[in-house]
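User: Show me an example of a complex going from sequences to structure tokens.

Assistant: Sure. Here are the input components:
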Amino acid sequence: MTDATASLTTADGKPLKAALAASQARAKRKALMLVAPLFLFVVITFVIPIGQMLFQSIYNPTFSDAAPALDEWFGANPQGTVPDEAAFAALAADLKLMREERTAGAAGTRINYDVAGTRSLFTAAARRADDLAPPYREAILALNEDWGDPMIWRAMRSASSAFTPDFYLAALDMTRDEAGKIVQVEERQRVYKKLFGRTLMLSGLITVLCMLLAFPIAHLLATLPLAKSNILMILVLLPFWTSLLVRSTAWIVLLQQQGVINSALVALGIIDDQGRIAMIYNQAGTIIAMTHILLPFMVLPLYSVMRTIPPSYVRAARSLGASSWTAFRRVYLPQTLPGIAAGALLVFILAVGYYITPALVGGADGQLISNLIAFHMQKSLNWSLAAALAGLLLGGILLLYWLYDRLVGIDKMKLG
Amino acid sequence: MALPAYASPLEKTWHYCYLAICTLIFLFLISPILIIMPLSFNAEPYFTFTEKMLSFDPEGYSMRWYDSLMTFGMQNPEAPRNGHWWSDFWHNAQWMHVAKNSVIIGFFSTLVATVLGTLAALGLARPEMPFRRAIMAILISPMIVPIIITATGLFFFYSKTGLANSYPGIILAHATLGIPFVIITVTATLIGFDQSLIRAAANLGANPRTTFFRVVMPLILPGVISGALFAFVTSFDEVVVVLFVADHTQQTIPRQMWNGIREQISPAILAVATILVIISIALLTTVELLRRRSERLRGVTPR
């Protein structure tokens, strides 16, 4: 058999096997060439920037660049060594360097991320760095007693290496104690875990709400004749095509205290003028607006699955004696599961990373993790922490995305 | 869905309840969008229907918010509305400025996304394509990755490469965000594409270029155009990237709205919103018509 294949040749005398392999390789190359430009484009404008940002979450050279002498001392002395005269001499040298290069503020800020209230310690000491004389230990402690605090030395030690897991620890509400052991931060400072929890909880709630709202209308759309369902479909697609900001604005207008719904309730006498309900700029606002915005992403996959379910199955179940509830539960519902899974995963993935709507209608307690990343990017300017939070969020999202690809398949994604 | 003749009274009741529930959900979907339209003609600076509006008194309605939209930023808004006024409006009005930006950025990013995206979709649809799933996953990921992460990444990347605060920077970013939509729509069109048509064309003596422009292109064009419209809408509606990597000169419509909503929300925002809704209705209609045309071309008849 092998001999027979090997002896077959094409018209120009090449072995058939080789000719086929060459032609397949050519076809493969052609296909790759078509995809290559876009692939490169996405890698350059998307993958590399995000990779670079994630790198910031583990790499922060602000302090190690500003304090080379301390870096050396920490290298020579293991964790737990009590800072001696040599250590303070190194500190004094670095403070002088910081004064010359004007890096005291940046270096102090870096330590301040770890131990609150230490930025001024650095700027004040650097200002008087030129007056420092041996013995340095006494001289520096005379400037400020706090320089003897082991926590500061511990923080300087971990900041003196540019590669650090500290920002991920901070993003998980953890810190190191004086001996460098990883511990949880104080109860009242634990914000990030709470926010991750809230993001997951709200996203889950929004996903469930979308499921409950999408199921009946997807079913109606799927069972109506196409001419009618196409018209009703517009009601789903129009919000989908409308600007996110428009939809958020619309909810502000509807839900605010002087808004349409409250005024209607007052006019109808259901509530009095003082008792206007606060429905926006809080968690309720985020939930309502995001459910509305993400609902089409649930309806569309559910609809395309329901469309393929033959109505005769339920009829057959009924004719075999099932009640309408049993027929629905045992025959219809299991067939819609792929649609439910696809829609729910998509809605959840999109909800977890939502930024715009919570920022506009969420108030204080309706903020999600994305809003905190924006806060650290724009207000507190702790970019490494923002990058660490983004890294955690991205990790979760990519896991869900992988799951989506496994369960549903990315090529099955459809729009409208 | 018609109620079968053998339905019990309980089932009948449930059926009508079900229809009522569906109506309510459709109302939930559509009413926020519809309600802002009449409110944008409010004569008072309120976000509710005044009594005059409810009694359809013409005095309760006015174009004042559209007017304030037009004159905002103009040098001489009080001047008589002649050629000079309109030229002032064209050159100086803030909303005109941001609208121009939105159209420029939207147009070029759509162009980039559509050309590259269509080529890639053609490659991905070939049966010989290696690593299809992995490559597809990467190309779709800009839609899945939270926009705040993308914006943060671009902020660092652009500040290092000098693309920050420039039109090319925003156009590239928006093109990236639009690409998944082009890929998804064009791939969906290509699923029903009969590959033997290409061989038939070659058999009849057409070279690959003729085959592409005379056979492939007309068949996938509806998908390409709706992908392009999706990409345009994505750019037209994008605010976070603009927030992070653009400065004052590259502000777009959503960016200006963002300011308006966060600072002092006035019915003028509703006037913008109304205009945007009308634009989306026009786009949706186009996409629907294209989809039907595509189905007809491919011989997929609706049941």
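The lines above are the inputs; the final block is the predicted structure for all two components together. Chain B touches chain A through 97 residues (CB under 8 Å).
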